[in-house]
Design brief:
The complex is a heterodimer of chains A (about 220) and B (about 1050). Chain A is mainly alpha-helical. Chain A has 10 helices and 1 strand, in the order ααααααβαααα. The termini of chain A are far apart. With about 1050 residues, chain B is α/β, with parallel strands linked by helices. The radius of gyration of chain B is 29 Å and the shape is globular. The chains are: A mainly alpha (about 220), B alpha/beta (about 1050).
């Protein structure tokens, strides 16, 4: 005999091992290579220790005070340092943490903020239309008013976008409440859910909100 | 030039044009038509061996790529957002800004509105606010934005070929000014291109007053000033004619290509289209010409005659008119004017038609025709009461310039050259002692100059100009000069020694007026009410006669003309222009010796044969191209090619016809000699004939009035079969809830085929250029093309005596040049773009659903899904899909030719191995650093830049649609006012529609019954191309109506209709 007896079970063993290994790789890729893992949770250190929790949360600054392009442009801009200096030429005037900001405002040199939220170049996301039609910052960015350092809260993957595009009624709210991240229909969770359902459907119908799922909505 | 021809002799690949003997044994020529893609389009490289090598190299690079990915990790790279330090007011990042400016031309200016993103201009559009304008431009204006981002622009101040600092160069100008101020300009001369700028005229005057002995010469490679000179002589006052084609009922063009090669063509097209509405008031166009021009293609009657004989025809018509006026019985006078090759009835009937429509007649002479012909044209216009109605005469005040004849090199010590490229177009060899030049390129002229100053683009400049009707328009900068170029006005102010030398201040001072007026001027882009006043003058000149020689094969006539792409050579380095198919020949990346079939046959030459043309002791070599409809014994030579120092794009393209050009556009006495060499010409439409298919539908006006529905399917025997679909079209369901349904109509009656839309589309949609080699492989990327068909009398097609003896009516592409039917042809143009079929054949074959319908009826293309099978393109009956065979954006032109394409493993750019460059920046490709930055700057950020392996096509400018919808929704907020409507002016315009001078393209919401497009689709002229395939195209065409004169000897049904009827199995009306 050329082959010993144990070789009879070799194909089966190989098959099982291959199945396990393949399954493992597939599971690994599914979990670790999707935006849910690779992007959600991304929290780079910014050049200025700016806290949204203090500014937007505790002091209640409206998002649009700084991100003032959000209603006009596809892009929600970062404020120029001159915007910061509107307050900080009075408050924390000589704080060393603000040295970069003062320098930027004085010399018109940009602050190199690290970009947190980004969609690929072939996705043409437009901030202004979402905000104008009653979709809150919260839906994509999470509770930024509770973050010291901004964190990538949602995956921003295509399926994430489509979830909402398939059912805009589940997320829509009065447009004047889009920047109030702690706003709810009701403090009672069950009632809030009910009101969202009723009002959501009403808004979608009354304002002719489209459930856009064709390619041209985002890809050009 | 020489270099280029030598290369062509070494071409080892398939040669496209051969003699008939060779053709006989080559069945592959006949295959051409039957292939989905042209030969070579689907082949990676030319022979199997190199393909295998290529795969080896590619697998190695995939391995590298794999390792690199592991090393780099899965997180995306960190990107920085850098906001302003001090936030500017009224600026929102990502929101486009629009500025009114203007593009100066030789005799006028085109008012523009330029779209700018983040401080960089991305798209040029016409200024629709301008009185009378429909917001259109010409193709040169559309393409001019690419020149701004040309990496080959002059970037440095240079003295004797060495880079000097800006300060040093400006210091030299100050010295120059002081020096000549001391001797009142003795020995100082200026050589400038013509300009309509009031500010420049003012500076010119200051210079003339300060340097009394200086001379100012105006020199254009192509002279468009003859209209003004002729009118001035004819009416005894400095006036310039404006031609109102819209007010004319009968137009006679005496070799005047007013729709193509003449200045201000876009205005002519707009006015001409307005007079061509099918119906009673429709105008009639007679064209007398030697070349086949766009005007000839639009003409109802076209007389094919050597350009040097146009005077004879004009004179005969004029004499006939006088007789018709003077004698009570005008009949019987017709036989007196015997012109060889002209039916005397043509002349007499044309004259009668002119007289019958006196007061609504317009006779125009071409700018290449001598003054005598212009004077004759004005005589006829005057005698038929056209002055003041169809011809308006506007006063002009031109600054006096010296006569070019007094240009004496020995008397000039310092010559200041403003723009232009005189060394190239004058073939200059000698030079004055010192030459100072302000130029946009380091070209042939720059090489011979002592001082070179880089010029700024008009989009970088402050300036002003006057349009053809005399309206003052402002030129304001969209961007700081990219390479620190000097503005023309600043340059002149320095030379003049003016203390006020910022261009802004100069223009502001010329304008005068209050601050409010100035602001309104800049906002509108023009000064309202500054247009010239129409003068009523009477003709008061003698009309000299012209003697014309009889042309023959040993005494050929040469006609030099302004090229429809590179102009006089100024756009030679503009890739969009080089790759734009010529509107008539459909040739790209070349010029050729245009010749008629008969002449070619007598001289024994065929397409692609290089011949040597000798004219008054000078000679030039160029390839032959048989042009249907050309006059016999006439050669057409496009100027502007054969540049030796144009840049990466234009150097060595074509041959330089200026070498035998002496300032006369029409010359006789030329001979040609075959050299035995051949040259491959890249043409985008090989097949000329429609083969009797009803792609373009035409009728004469009488027939249209009798049977307005002539274009409908029932007359074409191609009614779609009545079938019930197995599956419901999901679009039918989506239509019920969608806000809009997009559709388009293209009016073939208005379209003249100028090609502006093609360039506008290229500019808007980031369409790359691919180079001549790739065009030869059928890989051009234009999303929109203009199909140009030649049609002819079917009886001539069956003529047994013709050169090709086969009885088959179908001509192979290569031997159609020998067929006799191409002598007297009609041409039709059909813009062809994605038809956005409701039942799209491309969609059903895509294996990955990369092309699907959206709810508004767009056939959308998701580039990121596309895996490049090209099934869709195979299945598209209109052949409007384009495939990125290579990474056209990342590969420079010189890497797009050859038998094997280099890879990152085998190629070095800027001396660095490409793999290493890829590692540092995966985006840069094989482009040099400087080129890459400019390419990125020039792209429209609203449209994805496609990569290799991806299919692309027209999307009805989906980015513009989405932008309009988003704007409307933002405005709507918490309300239901989200629908775009034409009444509210919120419907976007596609790029092609916006640019079209004729207004032939109408886009809109077909679900809105009140929209223009819906109304046009109800027109009896509306039809679908290949509608019998049940593709249900959203783009439909309006059939063309011709208006020939029934009394004319060449009156007949449109040839396309005759061809269709002779080939159709079901004759007209019998289906």
């Amino acid at each position: 005999m050329i082959f010993p007896k144990w070789t009879n079970s070799l194909p089966l063993v190989l098959l099982v091992v291959a199945a396990l290994a393949g399954g493992g790789v597939a599971a690994g890729v599914t979990i670790y290579l999707t935006p849910k893992y690779t992007r959600a949770g991304y929290q780079p250190v910014q050049p200025v220790p700016f806290s949204h929790k203090i500014h937007a949360g505790q002091m209640g600054l409206d998002c649009r005070y700084c991100h003032n392009g959000v209603e006009k442009s596809w892009f929600s801009n970062l404020p120029g340092a001159s915007t910061c200096m509107n307050c900080h030429n009075q408050v924390l005037k000589d704080d060393p943490r603000l040295a970069i900001v003062r320098d930027s405002a004085a010399n018109n040199t940009p602050i190199p903020w690290v970009q947190v939220h980004i969609v690929p170049d072939y996705v043409y996301f437009n901030h202004s239309v979402h905000v104008a039609r009653g979709f809150s910052c919260l839906e994509c960015h999470g509770r930024v008013d509770q973050m010291d350092e901004v964190r990538h809260a949602k995956s921003l993957s295509m399926s994430f976008c489509l979830n909402c595009h398939r059912d805009p009624a589940a997320a829509i709210r009065p447009p004047d409440k889009v920047t109030k991240l702690d706003w709810q229909w009701s403090t009672n969770a069950a009632e809030a859910e009910h009101l969202q359902d009723v009002n959501g459907k009403k808004f979608v119908h009354d304002w002719k909100v489209e459930s856009l799922q064709s390619c041209s909505a985002c890809h050009r | 030039m020489k270099n280029n021809l030598n290369n062509s002799a070494n071409v080892t690949g398939r040669r496209y044009w051969r003699s008939l003997d060779e053709l006989a044994d080559q069945p592959e020529f006949k295959d051409w038509l039957h292939r989905e893609f042209p030969v070579g389009a689907s082949e990676l490289v030319e022979d199997g061996q190199s393909r295998r090598n290529f795969l080896k190299i590619m697998s190695a690079s995939f391995a590298f790529a794999g390792i690199a990915t592991l090393g780099a990790g899965c997180r995306r790279p960190e990107e920085k957002l850098e906001p302003f330090g001090r936030q500017p007011e009224n600026y929102t990042f990502g929101d486009a800004q629009y500025f009114a400016t203007a593009m100066p031309t030789r005799t006028g200016a085109i008012p523009l509105v330029v779209k700018s993103y983040e401080g960089r201009p991305v798209k040029i559009e016409g200024n629709a606010l301008f009185p009378g304008s429909n917001g259109s431009t010409d193709r040169y204006a559309q393409a001019s934005i690419l020149d701004l981002y040309d990496p080959d622009r002059a970037r440095h101040f240079k003295h004797d070929g060495k880079v000097v600092s800006r300060e040093e160069a400006l210091g030299f100008l100050d010295e120059l000014s002081k020096k000549f101020a001391a001797n009142s300009g003795e020995g100082l001369a200026f050589l400038a291109e013509s300009s309509t700028s009031p500010s420049r005229a003012r500076l010119q005057k200051i210079i003339a007053d300060k340097f009394l002995k200086s001379k100012w010469f105006t020199c254009d490679a192509i002279d468009s000033g003859i209209h003004q000179r002729a009118a001035t002589q004819a009416f005894g006052q400095p006036v310039k004619p404006i031609f109102n084609f819209d007010k004319a009922k009968v137009i006679l063009s005496l070799d005047c290509d007013f729709l193509g090669g003449e200045d201000d063509a876009h205005n002519h097209i707009r006015k001409f289209a307005a007079s061509r509405k099918a119906g009673d008031g429709m105008s009639r166009l007679y064209a007398v010409e030697s070349l086949f021009t766009l005007t000839g293609a639009s003409a109802d009657h076209r007389l094919r005659i050597p350009a040097s004989k146009v005077w004879e025809v004009a004179n005969a018509i004029n004499s006939m008119l006088r007789q018709l006026h003077e004698t009570a019985n005008p009949l019987g006078q017709s036989a007196q004017y015997n012109i060889e090759g002209v039916d005397s009835k043509w002349v007499s009937e044309c004259a009668k038609d002119l007289v019958a429509n006196a007061g609504r007649v317009l006779v125009v002479a071409g700018q290449r025709q001598p003054l005598e012909v212009h004077l004759l044209a004005h005589t006829i216009n005057s005698s038929l009461d056209s002055i003041g109605s169809t011809v308006e005469l506007f006063q002009t005040n031109t600054v006096a310039t010296s006569d070019l004849k007094s240009f004496d090199l020995d008397a000039i010590e310092t010559l200041v050259v403003l723009g232009g490229n005189p060394v190239y177009h004058l073939n200059a060899t000698a030079k004055p002692k010192t030459v100072v030049r302000l130029g946009y390129y380091e070209d042939e002229t720059a090489q011979k100059c002592d001082w070179n100053f880089p010029a700024a683009h008009y989009l970088e400049s402050w300036g002003d100009a006057t349009t053809s009707d005399g309206t003052v328009v402002g030129i304001q900068p969209l961007i700081q000069p990219l390479f620190g170029g000097l503005l023309e006005l600043e340059f002149l102010a320095r030379v003049a020694g003016e203390t006020q030398n910022s261009a802004y201040e100069i223009v502001r001072a010329t304008f005068g007026g209050s601050e409010e007026d100035w602001k309104r001027f800049l906002f509108n882009g023009f000064l309202n009410g500054s247009a010239g006043k129409s003068e009523t003058l009477s003709f008061q000149a003698a009309v000299p006669a012209v003697q014309s020689a009889t042309t023959s094969e040993s005494n050929l006539e040469v006609v030099f003309f302004r090229d429809s792409k590179v102009d006089d050579g100024r756009y030679a380095n503009n890739g969009w222009m080089q790759e734009l198919p010529d509107p008539v020949t459909k040739m790209t990346w070349d010029n050729a010796v245009l010749i008629s079939r008969k002449t070619a046959r007598e001289l024994g030459v065929a397409n692609g044969d290089i011949v040597e043309i000798s004219l008054s002791g000078k000679s030039v070599k160029g390839p032959i191209w048989t042009q249907p409809g050309m006059a016999d014994y006439s050669l057409g030579l496009a100027l502007g090619y054969g540049r030796e120092r144009a840049g990466r794009v234009g150097t060595g393209v074509g041959f330089n016809a200026y070498k035998i050009f002496s300032g006369k556009y029409i010359e006789t006495g030329a001979t040609i000699k075959k050299t035995g060499e051949t040259h491959v010409l890249a043409c985008t439409q090989h097949h000329w004939s429609m083969e009797g298919r009803p792609a373009v539908r035409e009728a004469n006006l009488e027939e249209f009035i009798k049977e307005p529905t002539f274009a409908q399917e029932k007359f074409h025997g191609v009614e779609p079969p009545v079938v019930k679909s197995l599956y419901a079209n999901p679009l039918d369901e989506a239509k019920k809830t969608a806000l809009h349904q997009w559709g388009m109509t293209v009016d073939l009656n208005a379209c003249v085929g100028c090609g502006t839309c093609v360039v506008a589309c290229q500019s808007e949609n980031n369409i790359p250029i691919v180079g001549k080699d790739q065009v030869l492989r059928g890989r051009e990327m234009h999303w929109m093309r203009i199909d140009r068909y030649f049609t002819s009398d079917p009886k001539r097609k069956h003529n047994p005596n013709r050169f090709d003896l086969s009885a088959d009516m179908n001509q192979t592409d290569e031997n159609q040049q020998f067929a006799e039917w191409i002598d007297d042809v009609q041409a039709v143009n059909q813009p062809m773009l994605c038809q956005q079929c409701e039942s799209a054949p491309c969609e059903s074959v895509c294996p990955v659903a990369a092309t699907v319908h959206d709810q508004e009826g767009l056939n959308v293309m998701a580039y990121n899904r596309c895996i490049g099978t090209r099934y869709c393109s195979n299945n598209c009956p209109y052949k409007v899909r384009r495939f990125n065979f290579l990474d056209y954006n990342k590969r420079p032109l010189n890497e797009l030719k050859g038998t094997i394409y280099s890879t990152t493993l085998t190629h070095k750019t800027d001396g660095v191995w490409d793999l290493k460059r890829w590692w540092n920046d995966p985006n840069s490709g094989m482009r040099s650093e400087d080129e890459w930055d400019l390419i990125k700057l020039s792209k429209n950020p609203d449209v994805t830049v496609r990569m290799r392996g991806v299919m692309e096509k027209c999307t009805y400018c989906t980015q513009r649609i989405e932008h309009a919808k988003i704007s409307q929704k933002v405005k709507a907020g918490a309300s239901d006012n989200v629908r775009l409507s034409e009444a509210a002016g919120t419907i976007p315009k596609t790029a092609c529609q916006q640019a079209c001078p004729a207004g032939a393209i109408v886009f809109g919401d077909v679900s809105d019954a009140n929209s223009s497009v819906s109304k046009l689709k109800l027109s009896p002229l509306n039809y679908s191309v290949l509608g019998n395939l049940l593709t249900k195209p959203r783009t439909t065409y309006l059939a063309r109506v011709r208006n020939p004169n029934p009394a004319m000897p060449d009156y007949h049904e449109p040839f396309s209709t005759e061809e269709f009827e002779s080939q159709s199995l079901t004759p007209k009306g019998n289906s």
